[in-house]
Amino acid sequence: MDFDVGARLRELRTGAGLSQRDLAARAGVPHGLIATIEQNKSSPSVASLRKVLDGLAISFVDFFTPPRPSADKVFFAAGELVDLTSILPGSMQQGAGRMVFRQIGDAHAHKLQILHERYEPGADTGADMLSHHSREGGIVMSGTLEVTVGDEVRVLKAGEAYLFDSTRPHRFRNPGDVPCEVVSACTPPYL
């Protein structure tokens, strides 16, 4: 799926009546970052884009606005999960290190985001640790996942799980040589 991150950011920034410098100051990022994202000259890390979106008080879900299923829907076929892969930096959307995030239903309507995540060998959310106002947990279904929360690091195998306050800086990485599959939940929704 092709998604013009730069155009979307520019649309939201100008709609909020902010200059690039205003948004950079609100988000606590360099002014040049806003300009390079809007010009599609760089693919921001998840953590960098999160900071910029925090400056606009908008979630990843609202930024990428995938079609939302009915909040009344109870059951979902595999093909009905919402593909959130486009929120990832371009380098993570293809080849080695690719990540795929698929969401069950309308996370905002339920104030709960449930994801089926797939991390190809070498996939990594990046050296910039993630941090957001949520709580999250997950269980590794297959493969291995290295989870870093603050200064704690653990490599989890199938059947093992994690649960933490997402304001603590964190990172996910597949150190193995086979894909890793995770089912996770986050409240309130983050992506």
CATH homologous superfamily (4th level) name of the largest domain: Jelly Rolls
Can you tell me the CATH class of the largest domain?
Answer: Mainly Beta
Annotated CATH architecture of the largest domain = Sandwich
Count of helical regions = 6
Low-confidence stretches: 91-95
Q: CATH topology of the largest domain, which one?
A: Jelly Rolls
Q: How far apart are the termini?
A: 17 Å
Using the CA coordinates, give the radius of gyration: 16 Å
Q: Tally the structural domains.
A: 2
Q: Report the structural category.
A: alpha+beta
Spell the H/E element sequence.
Answer: HHHHHEEHEEEEEEE
Silhouette = globular
Biggest beta-sheet profile? 6 strands, antiparallel
Q: Strand fraction band?
A: 25-35%
The number of strands is 9
What strand order characterises the main sheet? 1-2-3-9-4-7
Tell me roughly what share of residues is in helical segments. 10-25%
Mean pLDDT: 86
